Amino acid sequence: MSKILYKEQLSNAVFLMRLDAPLIAEERKAGQFIILQVDEDYGERIPLTIADADTEEGSITIIFQVVGKTTDELSRMNVGDEIPVLVGPLGNATHIEKYGTVVCVGGGIGVAPMHPIAQAMKAAGNKVIIIMGARTKELIIMEEEMKKVADELIVVTDDGSYGRKGLVTEPLKEICERVPKPDMAIAIGPPIMMKFCALTTKPYKVYTEVSLNTIMVDGTGMCGGCRVNVGGEAKFVCVDGPEFDGHLVDFDNMMARLGEFKDIEHEKHECYVEALTEAKILEDESKEKKQ
Amino acid sequence: MTFIPPEILSEKAHSLFEQYAEKVSELKVKDRIKIPVQEMPSQDPKVRAHNLEEVAIGYTAEEAQIEAMRCIQCPTQNCVGDCPVNINVPLFIKFTAEGEFQQAVNVIKETSLLPSICGRVCPQETQCQLHCSVGKVFKTVDKSVSIGRLERFVADWEREQGKIEIPKVKPETGKKVAVVGSGPAGLVVAADVRREGHSVTIFEAFHKLGGVMRYGIPEFRLPNEIVDKEIETLEKMGVEIKTNFVVGKTRKLADLFAKDGYDAAFVGTGAGLPIFMGIDGENLIGVFSANEYLTRANLMRAFDREHADTPTYKSKVVAVLGGGNVAMDSARMALRLGAEKVYVVYRRTEKEMPARNEEIAHAKEEGVEFLFLQNAKRVLGDDKSRVIGLECLRYELGEPDKSGRRRPVAIEGSEFVLDVDTVIVAIGNNSNPLISATTPEIKTNRWGNIIVNEDQKTSMDKVYAGGDIVLGAATVILAMGEGRKAAASINELLAKEIAEGK
User: Fold this and answer.
1) Hey, which residues does A3 pair with through a beta bridge?
2) Could you give the C-alpha distances from B371 to B276, B333, B393, B437, in angstroms and in order?
3) Residue B230: pLDDT band with limits 50, 70, 90
4) N or C: which end of chain B has fewer CB within 10 A?
């Protein structure tokens, strides 16, 4: 059980929560994740990256986007509510060392898990260039925090409503063309973005790490549902990752696997939304009656 | 094995009971061996293939007494020596025959802590029943006394009477023991160590306890209610339980000693790292490890489609690869989740299958089709990366290998395609790497199994291990046996420390 200590809505569908988890806060390192369930008996287990931790408060920060039933239910929980299942920190920590110049590319809510990595890279003595991207201005998160860490910050939006118009791969390509080229890149965001970041840096031979978020059940190596093809070998994201050499990851297979249960989930989600709407209508009706 | 309705079985037992009940003590060996084996009453295969209720219903009291009368109380007592925890089998059976069920269960509990579980999932035909003198008379283990069914009966009887006694706990010693993992080995250690008055905390990575008995073995073979009952007993004994706690990640094993003041630890984290075939197409959508398939259905309750958020794959035709109990569980679970057709693909013959005979027979009754001497070569997918078939090869048996089993040899050019939309890989597990990867003090062998001495002690001071993390994938009862040994070692260590005033 873990109590929600703080909740903030960062944009229409993106939420930040600080959760009471002193042991996880103490042990976690940049790059690791937790698994949670909103219902102990029937809930599903979803992995979420730890965005930050506060050992004094004994809390961890998660940032999530509402994409399905569990994230939707989570977004409806409030400060003081208990999350029945929270386990972590899982996965391996990001390997931090002084590389020289590191380009950090965060897309959408991928900016959240990028923050502690950028901080750690900076603290290790690297020059940190940050590229943040989102579909539109409304979806840009943590710009202030990133500004504090970055030696250079580039913000892009798909629609040009904020910062530069375009995709993150465009500034990434320009940076790779600089002399000297960056020593490494890290990309965290939607799979399609990570795929194209890896394709962008490959001709420049800039080592690129990507952080994968696949379907998981246990998160401890037991189910193998999270397996991805890395350099022709099956790797488990939960115990071998979550970070891998982006130039070796078979993104197409990974993206296909992410859609494994899409039909069923879609069906279930429709039912769930219908039920919610119905409940809302009933609630409104009863309010009307009272009036 | 053909299905006989439970009513008919109990009627037959009833008439035998009338005949023998009054003269149990007078029965001669020749009378006893004339009594027919009492079959295990079970649900109709056509019905049970679509529900999750327990397949085997269990003996009636009369059936149990009749079956127990078949035991000739022979002096060799092979059954005791063949049991990993050396239950006094003839004595508990004698009590059962006399209708003294409480005394019978007490005998079992002297050495075994989880009889209602072992009575269900132990491979008796390769253990206690293997060298049974009655079976030997008929030259078949099928005619041995049904020790497992009797064990289950008396354990269930006790539970149903609400008479489960909470084992006595000695006065608190002030010593703290950490048990990592709540599978069969861990539960036994917790009980045995707690009895000596030491404080015990069980750490479990999942949100529910029981390990493989919860996530792996399905409800239709081992109902959760039974596992819950055993855990309830531990809680009543004062064992502390911490779920959602991954030792090695949430807290390093060494920190349990350094920061939390534990005096000893037991590692029973099981064999949880699925092995895949390493064939083409294994990452297609619709290929699952048996662990994932069963965990979704059992632990995450995905069989309850209406309530559970965790989805299961919609399958029409399923191929299960492997021939062990886990393969049988997966195949039978697939039927219950709605598959129209389920194949088990095994590269040797039925004789070499490691699954229990009863599981194979049950699977057949339920309509699972076995494809022997065949093996998967690659998984075929469509343009959406979904499984549309399994290319297989036919095999023949060649020379015996090191294990004595005749080695299957692929027949060149014998490829054929099985039209399936789901493939479940059930060819075994490697050891879970979380503890060894985060605890360099613990030595493992090349398969990742923790190395222990004869006292179950690892290379790390005050740390013991047992069950599948030591044995590789084995059985519930062997895990329990190791747990008992480890608990005895821990109790000895702590007693010594207390005597020395540490």
Assistant:
1) A82
2) 19, 18, 11, 39
3) confident
4) C
Disruptive mutation site among B201, B246, B269 for chain A (greatest number of A CBs within 10 Å) = B246
- For domain A2-90, give the CATH number: 2.40.30.10
The dotted CATH code for A101-258 is 3.40.50.80
Query: Structural domain boundaries of chain B?
Result: 6-160, 176-272+430-499, 276-427
Domain B276-427, architecture per CATH: 3-Layer(bba) Sandwich (3.50)
Residues 193-212 on B with a CB inside 8 Å of A are 205-207
Every domain of chain A with CATH number 2.40.30.10 lies at 2-90
Q: Is B256 helix (H, G, I), strand (E, B) or coil?
A: helix
Closest Cα in chain A to B282: A234
Cα angle, residue B183 at apex, residues A237 and B255 outer, rounded to 5° = 65
The CATH architecture one would assign to domain B176-272+430-499 is 3-Layer(bba) Sandwich (3.50)
Q: Which residues lie across from A208 on neighbouring strands?
A: A185
What three-state secondary structure class fits B350?
helix
For residue A29, is pLDDT > 60?
Answer: yes
Decide if pLDDT at B364 tops 90: yes
Q: Write out chain B residues lying below 8 Å of A227, CB-based.
A: 276, 283
> Which residues in B lie closer than 8 A to residue A253 (C-beta atoms)?
283, 385
Q: How would residue A15 be classed by pLDDT, with cut points 50, 70 and 90? A: very high
d(CA B356, CA B351) in angstroms, rounded, equals 11
The answer, yes or no, to whether residue B29 has pLDDT greater than 70, is yes
Distances in Å between the Cα of A212 and the Cα atoms of A122, A137, A189, B286 are: 22, 25, 9, 20
Look at residue B424 and tell me whether its pLDDT is greater than 70: yes
To the nearest whole percent, how much of chain B has pLDDT over 70? 100
Residue with tokens 């984290």: B269
Pairing of strands A59-65, A46-54: antiparallel
What distance in Å separates the CA atoms of residue A197 and residue A192, rounded to the nearest whole number? 9
How distant is the alpha carbon of residue B52 from its chain centre?
Answer: 17
| pLDDT, tens only, A219-238 | 999 999 999 999 999 999 99
Chain A neighbors of B311, CB-CB under 8 A: 44, 261, 264-265, 268
pLDDT confidence tier of residue A278, bands split at 50, 70 and 90: low
